[in-house]
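Many groups now describe folds with learned vocabularies. In that spirit, our science desk offers one protein's residues alongside their backbone shape tokens.
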Amino acid sequence: LFDQYVRRWMPEINSQVVGLKYFNVYGPREQHKGSMASVAFHPNTQVKKGENPKLFEGCDGFPNGGQMRDFIYVDDVCKVNLWFWQNPQHSGIFNCGTGRAEPFQNVAEAVIKHHQKGAVEYIPFPDHLKGRYQSFTQADMTKLRGVGYDAEFKTVAEGVADYMAWLNRA
């Protein structure tokens, strides 16, 4: 809806208007999200309780833990927002992801690596999600790169390592 509104009025607007479509953001200060917190948050909680991190079994052609998302660390999201603030000549609707789809397995393994314990446990894929679950997301970064945003984005391994250090600080 916002996309359509902005596209309609963009030719007449004299100030910067930026809409960012956030992909799978994870990082500090998401505890309030409860069950909607990131796939990095939940395995950390499970390992801290002495459990193994849990991921869905394979479904829709994806192997166990192989569902893929474009995970973007919140620090990278902040950098994109600040870049637009510092570059007011650019307006439009942009994807805010990394352009890389990485499997949930990579996230769980990064959590295990931080804690140096645990093994991924696969749980049955819920029937009510079959055929309705978004098993793959990957941002098309062409437009963002096209306006000059050239910073690198953290990989899941890098971002989750930073996040685990923050979540588990003494």
Observations:
- The CA atoms of residues 110 and 157 lie 6 Å apart.
- The mean pLDDT is 95.
- Residues 2-7+16-167 form a domain with the UDP-galactose 4-epimerase; domain 1 fold (CATH 3.90.25.10).
- The first strand starts at residue 18 and ends at 22.
